[in-house]
Amino acid sequence: MLKYNAVINQEISTNDLIVKEICPVIKINLRGKTREFFTSVGKCLNMILPTEANTSSSSDQLTAIWQSPDEWMIVSNEIDNNDTNTSKLNELLFNNISKTNLGAVTNVTDQFVQLEMKGKNIYDLFSSGSPFNFEEFKERKGSTTQTILNNIDVIIHNKDQNYVNLYVRRSFANHLFDWINDYVSKL
Question: Model pTM?
């Protein structure tokens, strides 16, 4: 298994909300904007990067989350069972993108904590701590947003109805989890 220390060692589980950390999952920040960059990434990932703001694209093994016109987070859809911190995906992208000066590849696995959230109260929780309007977001599977939740920068990916993955920087993960837990305890 990937040498990754879980940040959240507990789970929130009520009838209306389930929150747990999913780890270890490979997360890679990818930057570039040339036609050659897109072609090379498409060949490496066997998928097309989303180019429309606040969207994602997925294959069986990976999800690409749009972050800006020239930036994506590539996330593995499966837990990584490697026993080292090296990733074949990172090496493949680094060799074909960074080494050829087409763009930048940065492994951010240790930087972001992935929380899986399920339940009918997800968007009530988000609305209580974020200025973002989730009305259209929650209706569009695959939509993404970067927003503030309880004054913490987060990335939210709509996986399906009442099912999201939330990415938060490791240093803020416990604080955000405690805030979520506090919110749930008041329901």
Answer: 0.93
